[in-house]
Amino acid sequence: MKIALAQLNYIIGDFDYNTNKIIDAIQSAKLQGADLVVFAELSVCGYSPRDFLEFTEFIDRCELSAQKIAAACKGIACIIGLPTKNPTIKGKDLYNSAYFIEDTQIKSIVNKALLPNYDVFDEYRYFEPAVNFACIEFMGHRIALTICEDMWNINDNPMYVISPMDMLINENPDLMINIAASPFAYNHDEERVQILGDNCRKYRLPLFYVNQVGAQTEIIFDGGSLVFDQDGSLLDEFPYFSESLKIYSFEYGRIIGHKPIAHDSQNDIQQIHDALILGIRDYFEKSGFSKAILGLSGGIDSALVCALAAKALGPDNVMAVLMPSEYSSDHSIQDALDLVSNLGCKHEIIPIKEAAAAFENMMKPAFKDLPFNVAEENIQARSRAIIVMAMSNKFGYILLNTSNKSECAVGYGTLYGDMAGAIGVLGDLYKTQVYKLAHYMNRERTIIPENSIVKPPSAELRPGQKDSDSLPEYDILDGVLYQYIELKKSAAELIAMGYDEALVKRILRMVNVAEFKRNQAPPILRVSPKAFGIGRRMPIVGKYLS
Fold first, then answer.
1. How far apart are CA 388 and CA 157, in angstroms?
2. Alpha helix (H) residue ranges in 88-182
3. So what's the pLDDT on residue 160?
4. E strands, 484-540, where?
5. How many Å apart are CA 311 and CA 326, to the nearest integer?
6. Edge to edge, what strands does the sheet with 175-180 contain?
7. DSSP letters of 330-383?
8. How far is 167 from 133, CA to CA, in rounded Å?
9. Cα angle at 12 between 525 and 519, to 5 degrees?
10. How far is CA 51 from the centre of its chain?
11. What residues contact residue 354 under an 8 Å CB cut-off, 6+ apart?
């Protein structure tokens, strides 16, 4: 038996696109001699469709697409993922399902049992968990087919009382196939390889694992589909962040022609770079956009976003707007100009001094003689937002947000000012990671000017301003934030680790107070195991300080 694994990039709800892509892959696999071609979880509709699943027509379109795929599946078999209707009157209306199609006929339906409802997942909102399991018979082989979480961390979640593989192993399967929609996080690939390999060792079976690739707004899928032997040794690993189709020979209970290999362990920053490029590109292509705009200050954050956007979309499709104020330094303007010269992207220089002065004069009667403070600083930030949004409306650009995770965490940003944007590019990278990524982008030639990297970070909204005037130094701040946000450490635990008590309480209070800002921020490209947005849900009004 020859098995093809198809690692593809789907568009949520674009049934014609997904169906044609699946059929094309079936035909390609058939031409290469495959007997079975396997696609990812919810491949027919894309993952995750969220509340699209509440529309009857959406589910009907999924079934219609599956029938089209079945009709095209002649002389070959395939496995596809889609939501299906629960025929009983008990439980949720839908199952998260896989169809096994053989020679135009849907021969088996497998439903997902373990429905994740943590972090970015919310499957139990829509789907009924399966309780019945059976192997699939094909070409004299018995296949144990499972869906994503059904082969994941079952022992770590007390909700999961039924293990599909513990049931399926009683039918003496010859191999395991798992179709998945496993999102990217910079630490996830090694965990994935370890857990799936452990399953192979536990059940003494080879495994074909198919993940999807591509970004769906903030959630990025990295691909990295895997093949293991019955000893849990890795035999093959698909490329990350790109589509691929490969074929394997399975005979006498073994995968033929492949020797164990080492996991292609990339460093975190390299993976983050590739993920952000894919995230930007897919956000624009899948939304029907082509041109990006951003405010370019000469600082490292906007410089990095500009460089990433130019690489993802092409420099001709990126407009950088320099908006100096009376407090902008000459070197910041020059740093920004050096960047656009290095990239070859478009740029405009639109000073905001007159606009800010007009607002300040207009507000004088209301402000009376109160001293200059954050109000006047934020007028500058909001003036810049007006300019880039005006450019967006006039020329069809989509605004990229340049805030980093450290700023998002502590509320160091201006609502309706520098927090504006359609998608947050760096919102899941701490400032210290921003520096590392900037150095990575400069690994072959200077793209981001050195001065943008080495100078003390500043919003330049008042004379001599530095970020450190308002915040702890970023290496200390980011350490506390990581422990609190990613690792969920309490104030007491952080203090026990050696962090200053007053500093810990100050930082955690800033994080919690800024929740109302984050709820108005754009969606953020997720690259960490705990990103702001749908993966971290906190009350806006609350007094708890852990």
1. 46
2. 164-168
3. 52
4. none
5. 32
6. 136-138, 141-147, 175-180, 207-211, 226-228, 234-237
7. HHHHHHHHHHHHHHT-EEEE---HHHHHHHHHHHHHHHTTPPP-HHHHHHHHHH
8. 7
9. 40
10. 19
11. none
* DSSP state at residue 150: G
Q: At residue 172, what are phi and psi to the nearest 5 degrees?
A: 55, 60
Decide if 455 is catalytic: no
Could you say which residues of the chain have pLDDT below 70? 153-161, 544-546
Rounded CA-CA distance 378/260 in Å is 58
Is residue 73 part of the annotated active site? The answer reads no
Tokens of 8: 């593809």
CB atoms within 10 A of CB 440: 15
Q: Quick one: tokens of 63?
A: 């079934």
Contact 143, 177 (CB under 8 A): yes
Dump the DSSP string for 68-87: HHHHH--SSEEEEEEEEE--
Surface-to-core class of residue 347, CB atoms within 10 Å of its CB (0-12 exposed, 13-18 middle, 19+ buried): middle
Catalytic, out of 73, 135, 148, 345: 148
DSSP 183: B
Tokens 């770079």, located at residue:
273
Q: What is the dihedral of CA 96, 102, 108, 114, to 10 degrees?
A: -30
Rounded CA separation 175/145 (Å): 9
Structure tokens at 309: 């956007």
What tokens does 418 get? 């520098």
Confirm whether pTM is higher than 0.85: yes
Instruction: Give me the amino acid identity at 51.
Output: D
**End-to-end Cα distance, the chain:** 56
Contact 62, 37 (CB under 8 A): no
CB 237 within 8 A of CB 231: no
Write out the two tokens for 52: 């699209």
pLDDT of amino acid 157: 52
Copy the structure tokens of residue 106.
């849907």
Compute CA 526 distance to the chain's CA centroid, rounded to the nearest angstrom.
4
Distances (CA, A) of 312 to 252, 275, 276, 306: 45, 11, 9, 10
Active-site residue identified among 41, 218, 377, 407: 41
Q: Which residue is catalytic, options 2, 21, 30, 112?
A: 112
The strand ranges marked E within 372-427 are: 398-401, 423-424
Tokens of 423: 């998608």
- Is the Cβ–Cβ distance between 306 and 276 less than 8 Å? no
Tokens of 135: 């192997």
119 neighbors 529 (Cβ within 8 angstroms)? yes
* Residue 284 identity: F
The alpha helices in 252-345, defined as continuous H runs, are 268-287, 300-313, 330-343
Mark whether 148 is an active-site residue.
yes
Between the alpha carbon of residue 523 and those of residues 11, 101, 333, 421, 541, the distances in Å are 18, 37, 29, 9, 21
